[in-house]
Amino acid sequence: MTDGTAQGSKVKDMSLAEFGRLEINLAEVEMPGLMASREEFGPSKPLAGARVMGSLHMTVQTAVLIETLQALGADLRWCSCNIFSTQDHAAAAVVAAGTSKVFAWKGETLEEYWWCTEQALTWPDGEGPDIIVDDGGDATLLIHKGYEFEQAFEKDGSLPCPSTTTNEELKIVYRIIAESIQKDPKRFQKMVARLVGVSEETTTGVHRLKEMAKQGKLLFPAINVNDCVTKSKFDNIYGCRHSLTDGIMRATDVMIAGKKALVAGYGDVGKGSVQALKAAGAIVYVTEIDPICALQAYMEGVEVVLLEDVVDKVDIFITTTGNRDIIMAEHMAKMKNNAIVGNIGHFDNEIDMAGLLSNPEIKRQNIKPQVDRFIFPDGHGVIVLAEGRLLNLGCATGHPSFVMSCSFTNQVLAQLELWNNRANGKYGKDVYLLPKHLDEKVALLHLGVLGAKLTKLTPVQSEYLGIATEGPFKPDTYRY
Amino acid sequence: MTDGTAQGSKVKDMSLAEFGRLEINLAEVEMPGLMASREEFGPSKPLAGARVMGSLHMTVQTAVLIETLQALGADLRWCSCNIFSTQDHAAAAVVAAGTSKVFAWKGETLEEYWWCTEQALTWPDGEGPDIIVDDGGDATLLIHKGYEFEQAFEKDGSLPCPSTTTNEELKIVYRIIAESIQKDPKRFQKMVARLVGVSEETTTGVHRLKEMAKQGKLLFPAINVNDCVTKSKFDNIYGCRHSLTDGIMRATDVMIAGKKALVAGYGDVGKGSVQALKAAGAIVYVTEIDPICALQAYMEGVEVVLLEDVVDKVDIFITTTGNRDIIMAEHMAKMKNNAIVGNIGHFDNEIDMAGLLSNPEIKRQNIKPQVDRFIFPDGHGVIVLAEGRLLNLGCATGHPSFVMSCSFTNQVLAQLELWNNRANGKYGKDVYLLPKHLDEKVALLHLGVLGAKLTKLTPVQSEYLGIATEGPFKPDTYRY
Amino acid sequence: MTDGTAQGSKVKDMSLAEFGRLEINLAEVEMPGLMASREEFGPSKPLAGARVMGSLHMTVQTAVLIETLQALGADLRWCSCNIFSTQDHAAAAVVAAGTSKVFAWKGETLEEYWWCTEQALTWPDGEGPDIIVDDGGDATLLIHKGYEFEQAFEKDGSLPCPSTTTNEELKIVYRIIAESIQKDPKRFQKMVARLVGVSEETTTGVHRLKEMAKQGKLLFPAINVNDCVTKSKFDNIYGCRHSLTDGIMRATDVMIAGKKALVAGYGDVGKGSVQALKAAGAIVYVTEIDPICALQAYMEGVEVVLLEDVVDKVDIFITTTGNRDIIMAEHMAKMKNNAIVGNIGHFDNEIDMAGLLSNPEIKRQNIKPQVDRFIFPDGHGVIVLAEGRLLNLGCATGHPSFVMSCSFTNQVLAQLELWNNRANGKYGKDVYLLPKHLDEKVALLHLGVLGAKLTKLTPVQSEYLGIATEGPFKPDTYRY
Amino acid sequence: MTDGTAQGSKVKDMSLAEFGRLEINLAEVEMPGLMASREEFGPSKPLAGARVMGSLHMTVQTAVLIETLQALGADLRWCSCNIFSTQDHAAAAVVAAGTSKVFAWKGETLEEYWWCTEQALTWPDGEGPDIIVDDGGDATLLIHKGYEFEQAFEKDGSLPCPSTTTNEELKIVYRIIAESIQKDPKRFQKMVARLVGVSEETTTGVHRLKEMAKQGKLLFPAINVNDCVTKSKFDNIYGCRHSLTDGIMRATDVMIAGKKALVAGYGDVGKGSVQALKAAGAIVYVTEIDPICALQAYMEGVEVVLLEDVVDKVDIFITTTGNRDIIMAEHMAKMKNNAIVGNIGHFDNEIDMAGLLSNPEIKRQNIKPQVDRFIFPDGHGVIVLAEGRLLNLGCATGHPSFVMSCSFTNQVLAQLELWNNRANGKYGKDVYLLPKHLDEKVALLHLGVLGAKLTKLTPVQSEYLGIATEGPFKPDTYRY
Lengths: 480, 480, 480, 480
Description:
The structure is a homotetramer of 480-residue chains.
Chain A: H1 4-8, H2 16-29, H3 32-41, E1 51-55, H4 60-71, E2 75-79, H5 88-97, E3 101-103, H6 110-120, E4 131-134, H7 138-156, H8 168-183, H9 187-194, E5 197-200, H10 203-214, E6 222-224, H11 229-252, E7 260-264, H12 268-279, E8 283-287, H13 291-299, E9 303-304, H14 307-310, E10 316-319, H15 329-333, E11 339-343, H16 353-358, E12 363-368, E13 371-375, E14 381-385, H17 391-394, H18 401-420, E15 431-433, H19 436-447, H20 459-465
Parallel strand pairs in A: 1-2, 1-4, 2-3, 4-5, 5-6, 6-15, 7-8, 7-10, 8-9, 10-11, 11-14
Antiparallel strand pairs in A: 12-13, 13-14
C-alpha cells in the first residue's frame, strides 16, 4: 500500500524520518490494542531473546507493530511483502529509531524484493529468526524452498534451476537458493531447526500453509491470524465499510445519494460495502451465488439481481467476491456513460481489465492517477478505479489504523503464543487458529480507549452458563 | 405460543376448524420454503412409508409444516411441546383435514401433556415412529428414559419410582413408563430399534442430545437443526428484530423514539434487538461480558456500559443473554418511574421475577394481560412485560411465519436426510449438523417468492474457486 | 379513535373509571409537555374564570389535556369530535374525578353526537364558552350556523329547514338550531359575543376556518395549532413512523423484512412511513406527483416509480397522499396474492373501497376486525386494512401519547394565548399561527423528561446572530 | 473553493485548458439539471441579447453553469467571488472555448479581486450587464456603492475616501469608485438603469439584499435563490452529509466507527452531519439552543448535551451553527489527545482559532495542508481541520456536482425569470423568492437521469386537491 497523498503533502521542512515519526505517533492513538500490549507486556519483555523476522507491508501502521514487538523485547528484522507498499517515511523513522533493521523501499524490483526478504531472514551471525510474521507467505516460501533444495542437493548434488519455471519470481527464488547452497548447504535446514513458528496474516498465506500441512510438508507450526474474528470481521466488514465510499469519493467526487449501486457478492466485504453505500443514500442491488447470503441481503432490504438485468441502469459497480470474471468488458459495453467500476474484493481479475486493455477499439483516457475512463466505440465511457485492483488501497488509504490495530494485535499475541510455547510441544507442524481467548483479548485491548465497560459474570452466572468468568465466552463455531 | 389475539378476534360465524384453515392458508403464502418443498418433493412422495412423530408447538405455522410432511408422504402423529402453546383453531383445522393425528390443546395439565406425548409416539399397531421432529427434546427424553428403565427392569425387575425425583414432570414420566413396562416390557426398546433418528429444533434440545452423545447414551442419530444458519441467524437476528418492538408497542404503546434503551447482551438476539430499537429512534446502550461482541457494538455506534451506571436514566430495559440474574429487583428499585423491563433472551430468570414477587413491599398492579406494574415503596413503578418470559411471544405473536418457514424447512430437509439415509449408515448414534448444502437449499427455497435471481458460477469460476457450481459455497467455519 | 384492545383486555375487577384512571396515570408519564404545563402554570391558575369547551376525541390522552386545562383553572365541558373515538374508560375517569363535564361515549348516533356538542357548548346558566378547543371544526360550525340563522330569523323570521340539504349531518344541525331559535333567538349571538377564540387541531378544521376568514365570515379569532412544527412534523413524521408498522404487524403479523413496499406520497407522512418500512428491512418504492419530494426520496436511496410499473411485484401498498383514487380496484386486480393494502393518509377514498365493495365478482372475506381479504375472480386475494381508513388508528392505537402531548401542549398554550390577550386586540377575526416562541416552548416542555440539556446563547452570540437568548430562534419560513 | 488534489494529480501531458475540459465534461454528467436546461431552452435562445455578469467561484461546476447560460444565448463575463476559489483549469477551459470572458485566478490579491469584479461588470462598450448572478453580493455591493457615491458627487462633488473606513476591502472599493467617477460620473447610474435584476446564491448575500430593501435602498429586483428548497435543503443536508465524512477521512484517515462525535447545531447542516456520522458508526451527540431542533434530534435517537459535559470524552467535534464562539480554546484544553475539531457551519469563528493562535503556550504542529495539531502545555494535542474554515471545502472538494447542479439550475431559472419579465413590472425593487413552480422545475430536471417516473394528477384528483396538474404542488409555507 502506498500513501502518495501523505507523502505528497508532507511538510517540507521535516526530514523523511521526522515526518514518519509524526505519522507513527498519530497512528499510535488509533492503535490502542498495540499500545495496550506494550503497557501490559512491555515491562516483562516476554520476547526477550526472540529473533522476530517480519515480511509485511512497511507502512506507518506496521511501524507501530514493529515498535510494539521491540517493546516486548524482540530482536527484529523487517522487509515488505509487496514491491510498492513501503511508505518510505515509515521505514525511515523505524530505522532512525533503531527499532528494527528494515529492508524495504517503495518501488523495489522483483530482484530487490527477494534480496530484501533474504536479508531480513539473515541475522549478522548467519542464522535465521526464531519466529516470523508473514503476510502472503513469501518468507515461509523461501525457507521451504531452500530446505527442499538443500535436501535435494544433499541427495544428488542438484541445484535449483531457474529455467525449470516460467514464473518470474520463482526464477529469482531459485537463483537465490542456488547461490545460498553453494555458500552454505545447511543454511535453510539450520534456519528451520531454529524456527519456533510463523503467524500468517492473509487468506492467501493461510491457504498456502494449509496446502503444505495437508501434504505433510509444513516444516514448523503456523498460526492462522487471518481467521480470527477480530481480524476477519473487522477487516472485511468495518474496514471496507469505511474505505469503500472513501475511495469512490476521493477518486470521483461523485454524489452517491440517489445513484444506483450494484455490489457483486454479499459476504463480509459485500455486507460492509452495502452498508456504506446505503448509508450514503444509494439504491443498492446485490448479486450472489450463495442463497444464504442472498437471503441475508433481503433481510436487510436489498434486492438480489443478475448483473445482466441491471447493467444498463446502475451507476456504480463494486466487486467484492474473491472470484474472477465478475464484470466483463461485454458488461461495460452496455453500461451508462460514466458508470463507475471498482473492485474491493481480491485480485484485479474480478474486473476484466485484460478485456478492456486488449481491445484496440476501447480507448483509455487517464483522468488522474488510479482513475481511468475507458471509452467504447459508441462513445460512452466507463470509469475504472485503481486499474481493477483494490480501490480502497488505490484510491484511498486502505483500512484505517484502528482496524489494522485489531489485526496486528492478533499478530503480537500469536508471536507471544508461539514463543511462550516453544518448548512444550503445544504446537506441531500444522496450522492453528489463534485460541479463542486470545481473539477475545484483542477485542478487550481495543475497548478501553472507546470507553467501554464490560460486565463481569458472577460466580453463579458463570456456573449457570458453564463459562469461565474470564472467557472464552463462545464456542469455536459461534458466528458473531 | 398462544395466540390469544387471533383467537379472540376470530370471526364468529366460522367454526374453529374453518378459522384455522383460513389462517393456515394465509400463513402458507408467508412460508415459501415449505410450499416449495411440497412442490419439489410432493410428487415423488419421498416420505411414503415413514411414520413421523412431532413434538412441537401446535400452531398455525406448525400446521403448514405438518401438511408439508404429509404432502411428502409421511404418516403423522403430533403433540405440542408446551402446555400453553397450542392454537386450538390450528389443531382443529389439521384434524378436520385428516392430515395428522393431533394430541394437543391450549392449557394442558402436565399429566395431559405427557399423555399427549405418549399418544403421539404410539401408532395404532402399538409401534412407534420412524423419525421424530422434536422441540426441546421431550419425545426423545421419554424414549430414552423408557429404554433405560426397561433395561433395568430386565436386569432386576425394578420399575421407575416417582418418589425418587422432586421434579414434577419427571414424576409423571416415571409413572407413564412404569405403567408401560407392566403392559409391554419391550415397548421402548422396539421403538428405539425402529427409530431412524430425530431432528431437534432448539438449543435446549441440542444441549441434551450432545450430553447424551458425550456419555455414549444416545440411542439413535440426531440432526441439529438449531444451528443451521437459516435457523439460528434468522430466528435470532431477524425474528427478534421484527418482534421485539412489536411486543413493546402492543404491550405499552410507548413511543420508542427519543427514549433511552438498554439491551443486555449483543449476541444475535441482541444485535437484532439493537437494530430494531435504533431504527425506532431510541438512544441505545448495550451491556456485554464478551469483548468481541462489545467491540462489534461500538462498530455499529452503540456504547457498552454497566447496567449500574445507567440504571436510573434508561427508559426501556431488554435482556437477550440466555444468562440469569441480569436485571435484579435492586436494579428495578433504582429505575425511573414507568421504566419498561422485558426479556427476549431465554428463560424468565434473566429478570429477577422471584425478587419482585417475594418482596411484600413491592406491589403488583396488573395493567392488562402480560403487562404488570410493580410499585416500589418510594412510589415509582416498573412495567414488566410477559412476567419476565419472552415478551415477543407473550405480548406479540412471536416470530413471523417467514422466519418459522426457514426453521421448519430445515426440519423437512432433516427428516428427508434421515429417512433417505436410513439404510446406509451415514448417520450413527451422534448429533450431526444438517449438511451445509441443505442449509443453503433452505435459503434457496425462500428466495423465489422474494423475486431473487441468483448468479450461477461458470465452469471457469467454479474451478478457480474450487467450489462446485451447485454449492456448498462456504466452509463450515464461515461466519456469515 | 377507539382502543378496543385496551378495553378488551382491561382488568376485570376494576370499574371503568378505575381502569381509565390507571391508563391516564400511565399516559401522564408519556405526556411531559402537559405535565410540565401543570407545573409551570398550575400555581397561578391563568385560566381561572375561563370557560373552556372542547370538541376533541375523548381518549385517555385527551383526558390528560382536559385535566391539564383544569389544573390551570379552566371550567370545562367536553364532547368528542367523532362518533366512534371515545374511550369510555377515559370518559368515566374524567367524570369520576369531576374534572370536566363530559358528553361522549363510544358509538354515538349522529343525533346523539350533535346533542353532545350542543350540551358541551351550553353552561348551566345558558351561556357558552369563553374559548374552544376544536378538532375538525364542528363546534365552530354549529356556532357559525346558529349565528347565521339567528340573523336570518331576525331579518325575516325564517328558520333553517333540514330539507334544504342532502347532508345528513347538516339536517341535524339545522334541526338543533331551529329549536334553539324558537327557545332563545339570541343564544348563538350571545355565545359569539362572549367568545374569545378557538384553537383548531386539524388540517380540515383549519381549512374551514381559512375559508370563513377569506369570506369575511369568521366571527372570532382562531389559532391554527395544526401547522405548528411541534404538531405537524411530530404527528406526521414521527407519529406515523411509529404507528405504521405497528398497525401492519398487529393486523397481519407479516414479516416486513425482504418484502417490497410501495409508499404513495413522500410528504411528511410518507417520509415517516418510508423510514419505518426501510428500518424493518423492506425494499421500498415511492410514487410522487411533486418533483421536489421525489428528489428527496432519491436522496434517501428510495426509487420513485409509477404504481402501474410495480403493481404486480409489490407486497405492501401504503397510501399517504391526502388525495383520492390512489389505489383502485383495477390495481388490486393485478396484485400478488395476499398483497397488503393500507391507508395512513387521510380519508378512505385513497383506496378504492367503493370499487371493491360494489363489484359483485369481488368476494369479501373477513379475517378479523379491521382486516379483510378481497378475493378476485382469478382467485387471488388482497388484504385491505381498516376498510381503507387510517390503518394506524384502525389496526393499532394511533399516535403514541408522547406525540399527542406535543400536539396538546400546543393547544394549552394556544388557549392561554387567547385568554391572556382577550382584552388587548392582539387577535382579530382571522386565523393565526401560534407564535413561533410558543411552538418552541412546546418543544422545550418535552425535553426535560428526555434528559436534554440546551445550550444558552451568550450575549455576544445573541447579538452576533440577532437572536434573543430566549428565542424565537428561527424565522417563520424556516423549514426544519 | 480550490481543488488542489485534482490539480496536483492532473495528467502531465495535458494543457491546463484540456484538463479543465476533461473535468467539465465529467461534471456535466453529474449536473443533469443544467444539461436538461440546455436541452429544453437551448434551441430557443431565451437569453439572446442578455448580458449576464457572474460573480461566483470559478470552478469546474460553475463552468458548466456558464456554458449553460451561454447555450441559452447569454453574452457572459465572469469573475470569482473569493480570492482562493478559482480552479485555474476550469477558467482556462472556459476561456479556451470562448464561452465567457473570465477574470479570475487562484490566489488573487484583494486589489486584483476587485479589479476582476469591475472588469466583469464592464462590457467593451462601457456599459454593464442586464442581469447578474451574484454569490455573497460583492457585484451588487460595488454597483450600489458606485451609485450612491455618484449621487453624492452630483450633489456636492465629493468622492469616496478610503480613509473613512477601516475595512480593507471597502478601502479598495472606494478607490475604484473614486477613479470611476472621475472618468465617468454617470457610469453606475447607467448600469443601474440597464439592470434587470440579480439572482443571489447565498445566505450572506440575501441578508445584505434584504437589509437594503428594508431601507428602501435596493436599486433593482433581486431573486433569492438561496432559500429555494432545491438549493437550501440539498446544499445543507445532502451536500454536507456527503462531504463531512469525506473531509474528515481525507484529512485524518481516522476510523469514525466506535468514536464519539459531537455535532454543534441540529439545523439542516447539523442534520446532514449527524446522519453521516451515525452511518459511519459513530456515537453522536448534539448541542442545540433551539428546543424544536433539539426535540427533532431525540426523535432520531440522538442525545442533546452541553459541550462542557462531554468535552473530555468526545473524539470528533463538528460545528454547524452559523454562530460564533462554539468551541473555544478552553474547551480544546480539556479534550482528549488527538481529538479532531472541524467546522462545516459558516465562518471560521465557530472555532476559536484566535484563541489558539494567540496563546504562546499552545504550539502549532502542521501535519499536512489543512491539518494542524495544536499542542497544549500538558502535552495533549487537538487536530484542527482547515484552520477552522469549512472543512468540506478545505479538506475535501466541497459539495458534489449533483448538489451544485440543483443550486445552479435555480440560478438559470432565476436568470430566465428576470429576463423574461424584464418589461412587465412583475418584479420591483425588492427581494423575491423564486416562484415555487420553478423550484419544482429544478427538481424535475434532476429526476430524469435518476430514472424517476412521476405520477400525474388526474383531472378529478386535481380538482379534489385544488392543485393544478402541473403544480405548484405545495403552499409556500410547506416545510418539506
